[in-house]
Amino acid sequence: MSMQKADVKIDQEKMASEVKYDGKYVLRTNTKLTNREVAQSYKLLWKVERAFRELKSGLDLRPIYHYTDTRVKGHIMICFLALVMETALCRKLKEIGSAFSYAEILEDLKEIRAVELTVEGKRFLARTEMMGNAYDAFKALKIRPPDLLKEIA
């Protein structure tokens, strides 16, 4: 496309040469799914891959060296449960009409802090104000956010 004196012109030659980069994919399966279901399932694969990447970065996962089968299985189970929890939160966020992504909300949740205070011999737990989109996570899960100030024993 080129601009000349507010005239827009499409470069047909360039368009024709770019067609070869248009993609197609062929799926083969042994399931009883319809063609449409197979295609939709395949397209959802990117969501799983993205979730795993976010899971690894969000939880600061890195190669962990376990030396027993029990520990390896435990590590895999924790990663899987984290992915299930992320997927459930994303579904709940969508249900309440939240426009924010899991990553955006996670960043805001990371900013919540709790500080223990002692005033006149009484102990309190004070939390920071929730910023940004953190409240959406509590709303989506129908969980009351922690109190701003709570006396503790």
Please outline the helices and strands.
Elements: E1 2-4, E2 7-9, H1 12-18, H2 35-58, H3 69-95, H4 102-110, E3 114-119, E4 122-127, H5 134-141, E5 149-152
Antiparallel strand pairs: 1-2, 3-4, 4-5
Helix pairs in contact: 3-5, 4-5
- Extract low-pLDDT stretches: none
First and last CA, distance: 70 Å
Count every helix, treating DSSP H or I runs of 4 or more residues as helices: 5
Number of strands: 5
Overall shape: it is extended
Mind summarizing the main beta sheet? 3 strands, antiparallel
Helix content: 40-55%
Strand order of the largest sheet: 3-4-5
Radius of gyration: 25 Å
Order of helices and strands: EEHHHHEEHE
SSE class: alpha+beta
Mean pLDDT: 82
* Number of domain modules: 2
Beta content comes to: 5-15%
Would you give an account of this structure?
This protein is an alpha+beta fold and 153 residues long. The protein folds into 2 domains: 77 residues, no CATH class; 46 residues, no CATH class. Helix content is 49%, strand content 14%. It has a 3-stranded antiparallel sheet with strand order 3-4-5, with no helix packed on it. The longest helix has 27 residues. It is extended, with a radius of gyration of 25 Å.
